[in-house]
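Researcher: Let's do a round of design. I'm pasting the structure tokens now; please hold your answer until I've finished.
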């Protein structure tokens, strides 16, 4: 990342935080107000924001409105069984991010991470500070600290694999992280560490196209357990690889966002970001 790109990245992250804080208060920020807070001219800020997010600041704020999830459910609802049958997953995260993944075997999972070396590092993301963890096979954990805080986020991911060996090495992770957050066109590799039922749920999440949503009950049906909606919700909540395994795309039938492990403001930002990029594409 060049110095100029890094600077613009941090400006856009701060702008998104300002927009989200205003949205939670039921307010919208004018272009002049946002540009002033970023110490830029309105024209320069509008151009830069549109380049990074894909739409204007005004349009992006509309995606953060409380009714956006209901609109997604109405206009971009994905029936997972039908999507699989017609190959809709071809436009999903798997393909538009050149993402490859493999899963740990049930026997390996039962060992609690024993024998695994997991590398970790902190990175800036469009959604605030991100803690990323990975084995030599791929990213196994992404946690967002904007709401939970760095200490809680670290404790949360460390507890997922209590018997693993953890080594701080952000340099080794950087290429995968840059691909994960769209800074490069490289390949992001994943390593799914979970119980067999959880991995089935996470596989289903990976088939939801970018900019679309589905419901917990749809996921339950797609994995062959239509009555296990509550268990599906738990597995969605335990997804360790936020953003790349898109648990933020699972919402309730009513159009309510439901829960999100790293905080609902982060979930709203993820959905708004994806909607903006999908529209721009």
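Researcher: That's everything. Go ahead.
Model: Designed sequence:
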């Amino acid at each position: 990342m060049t110095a100029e790109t890094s600077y613009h990245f941090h400006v856009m992250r701060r702008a998104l935080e300002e927009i989200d804080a205003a949205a939670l208060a039921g307010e919208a920020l004018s272009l002049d107000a946002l540009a002033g807070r970023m110490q830029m001219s309105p024209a320069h800020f509008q151009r830069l924001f549109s380049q990074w997010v894909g739409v204007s600041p005004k349009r992006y704020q509309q995606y953060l409105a409380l009714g956006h999830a209901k609109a997604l459910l109405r206009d971009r609802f994905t029936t997972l069984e039908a999507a699989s049958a017609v190959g809709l997953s071809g436009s999903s995260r798997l393909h538009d991010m050149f993402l490859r993944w493999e899963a740990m075997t049930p026997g390996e999972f039962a060992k609690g991470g024993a024998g695994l070396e997991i590398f970790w590092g902190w990175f800036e993301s469009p959604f605030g500070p991100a803690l990323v963890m990975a084995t030599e096979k791929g990213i196994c954990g992404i946690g967002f600290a904007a709401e939970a805080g760095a200490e809680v986020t670290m404790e949360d991911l460390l507890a997922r694999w209590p018997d693993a060996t953890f080594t701080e090495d952000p340099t080794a992770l950087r290429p995968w992280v840059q691909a994960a957050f769209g800074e490069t066109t490289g390949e992001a590799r994943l390593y799914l560490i979970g119980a067999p039922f959880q991995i089935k749920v996470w596989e289903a999440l990976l088939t939801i196209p970018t900019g679309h949503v589905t419901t917990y009950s749809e996921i339950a049906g797609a994995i062959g357990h239509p009555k296990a909606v509550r268990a599906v919700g738990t597995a969605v909540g335990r997804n360790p690889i936020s953003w790349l395994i898109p648990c933020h795309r699972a919402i309730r039938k009513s159009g309510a966002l439901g829960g999100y492990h790293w905080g609902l403001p982060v979930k709203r930002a993820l959905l708004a970001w994806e909607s903006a990029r999908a529209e721009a594409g």
